[in-house]
Specification:
Elements lengths: L1 H8 L12 E5 L2 E5 L7 E6 L6 H19 L2 E7 L3 H14 L14 E3 L4 H5 L14 E6 L5 E7 L7 H17 L13 E3 L5 H9 L3 E5 L2 E4 L3 H8 L3
Parallel strand pairs: 3-4, 4-5
Antiparallel strand pairs: 1-2, 3-6, 6-7, 8-10, 9-10
Length: 237
């Protein structure tokens, strides 16, 4: 019985699955996820606890970058296994007292989910018993406008997230969808993108002769994709 409970605690949706549905109370009112976010990308992320230093640095950074994510048609939703009043008190303290890396007077306006019973955390596999059985790890779920999970990143309690990477991943996935390409290691807007492998010898030959495509071999072809074109497609006007 105990083993089954542990297995249930660490069950989690996978990339390509529909995001598990839930209703929750948040600091910005009730939400119904993911239906409330249809037509937009969203990042659902968990943190271990309110009034903790690493989490504070992360929330300040997310709040500081919220406009940038919003301009990329992406909404932020936070979660921890704390109550609503704890959330409100913590966010007020951040705004009134905390300064970090030049950021101060930071107001968190995206919703922070109350999850005292751990219902959402367990549904998304945010409880990792070997790390902590009563706190959520630092999970990040990227959910696309159709409500499908597109990427998942997990961090232990002691490791703060890299927000440049979270934003890079979001833009890369949007560019891949928009232009029908893949993005290579460390890709950023303006870098060459990957063109999928040819389906036949004839297609491979045509591709090798295409002046817009640089093929090192049949399986490794790239092409240029202008930075302004990428950002013009994925960022809201």
């Amino acid at each position: 019985m105990e083993e089954n409970q542990e297995q249930q605690a660490v069950s989690m949706p996978r990339i390509g699955d529909p995001a598990p549905e839930f209703k929750a109370v948040t600091t910005q009112g009730d939400i119904n996820f993911p239906s409330d976010y249809k037509g937009k990308w969203s990042i659902l992320f968990s943190h271990p606890a309110d009034f903790t230093p690493v989490c504070t640095s992360e929330f300040m950074t997310f709040a500081h970058l919220e406009k940038q994510f919003n301009e990329a048609n992406c909404e932020l939703i936070g979660l921890s296994i704390d109550g609503l009043y704890s959330h409100i008190a913590w966010l007020r303290t951040i705004k009134e007292k905390i300064e970090y890396k030049g950021m101060k007077d930071i107001e968190v306006t995206f919703p922070l989910i109350e999850d005292i019973k751990m219902d959402v955390a367990k549904k998304y596999g945010m409880i990792q018993p070997n790390e902590d059985s009563t706190k959520a790890v630092r999970a990040v779920f990227f959910v696309d406008p159709k409500g499908i999970i597109r990427a998942i990143i997990y961090y232990p309690l002691s490791l703060g997230r890299n927000f440049d990477e979270l934003y890079r991943a979001l833009i890369a996935m949007q560019a891949a969808d928009e232009f029908g390409v893949a993005t290579p290691a460390d890709w950023r807007p303006g870098d060459d993108v990957i063109v999928g492998p040819a389906g036949s010898c004839g297609t491979a030959k045509e591709r090798m002769e295409d002046s817009e495509i640089d093929c090192k071999d049949w399986f490794f072809c790239t092409k240029k994709l202008d930075k302004d074109e990428v950002l013009g497609k994925v960022l809201k006007k």
